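Collaborator request, handled under Task 6.
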Amino acid sequence: MFEKLKRIYNKDDFDYSSGQVDPYKFHPTFYFIAKAFQVLDNEPIPIWSTVSFVAMVIDAIIGVVFAGISTFHGMQIFDIPTTTEAGIYTIVLVYKLLILSCTQLDKAQYHCFLRIMREDFRYVCAEGAKYRERFFENQLQTWKVSLASVIFTSGIAIGMSGFALMSLIFYLITRTPGDGSKRPLLVPFWLGDVDFGATPTYEIAFNFSNYCFLAYAYNYIFMIQTQVVWVRQIATKADLVIWAIQDLLQDIHPATCKGEKAHFAELIKYRMREIVSQHQSMYTLMEAYAGVYKKLLMFEQKLCGPVVCLTAYCTAEKLDEGEFNAILLLLCIATVTLVFIPCYLCTFLGIKVKSISDACWSLSFWNAGREIRPYLVLIMQRSLRPLPLQAPGFEEISIQTFSAKMTSAYSLFNMLRQTKL
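Structure tokens returned to the collaborator:
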């Protein structure tokens, strides 16, 4: 069994050494999740994806309403643990609605990404065949990273639901009749005089909260896996440009006659046209990525610090009371990890795009005519521009910004712990 999973992970049984390769078959999990969230551009929308999408929207809206009411109630009675815990779930579910809205409002950008991805696979299987091996090495790494993100996100959701079930089992084993204790819930629901500890209200709330967590993980798998594949496709596009620049002057040497000079000039012109075309396509892909993910990343940037701080604070407060809230701890770990991934990807992408400028500078351009130099200068200047992921009032998306946000969250956590609210 382990060997079979290992072969799937390494794609040992998938032949991409010859012939045309379908990107959807190379990335089957990405294809499935893209179909589920209705962002494919060349296939009809299946009914099951519409049903699941509507169900996710409905559960997110209901969850936001209940979590928001519980947060407001906690503020009214100055119950800090309830306010912070319910507030965290409100933020998380609002983010889910934002992700779902992007799948409908930004379909053009998703379609642009899928179209360019298919073009790149077709290119390396035809006229760009000399880059085929290196291209698919990159795609194999993309497959492995995206699969790891799916497993991690799924594990967090399963862990949360598992801990909720274990808490209920532990309660049923340890409780004594008449002790006044209540069955545990994932979310601190409150709605007027409704008793969420009584049957059947408790069962409905318990199953609904578990469903919300699993649906949120399913939603976030789409967000994080699509982001991984998208960013790494842009990086692979940058590699195609770099490889083409490195091969620009292959078999080119100082001309010895007019005929040879004209031949070299035409050859360089043809190769330069391919480089500029790939470079333009890379920026089209990058702008489409920014059109979808800029708002999501800015939302994460502003709220990841408070979420990490509040989950850690609630966990610490529960421990002081002799209770271990594994669900909040898992949520804290998941938030830190899943916010770090986009910051790392954007840092990686920025370095990769700037490396195009280094490739131009490393080129022996003095062996060619003057006609290519303006193009090289333009490519270098454009490659040194910052990524289109900036907005007024926000910092750049990078590991440095992530570190600053985590430092701020830790400082706020220490302050809350010392105030003894």
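The cover message to the collaborator said: "The longest helix spans residues 258-320. The two ends are 52 Å apart (CA to CA). Please let us know whether this matches your experimental observations."
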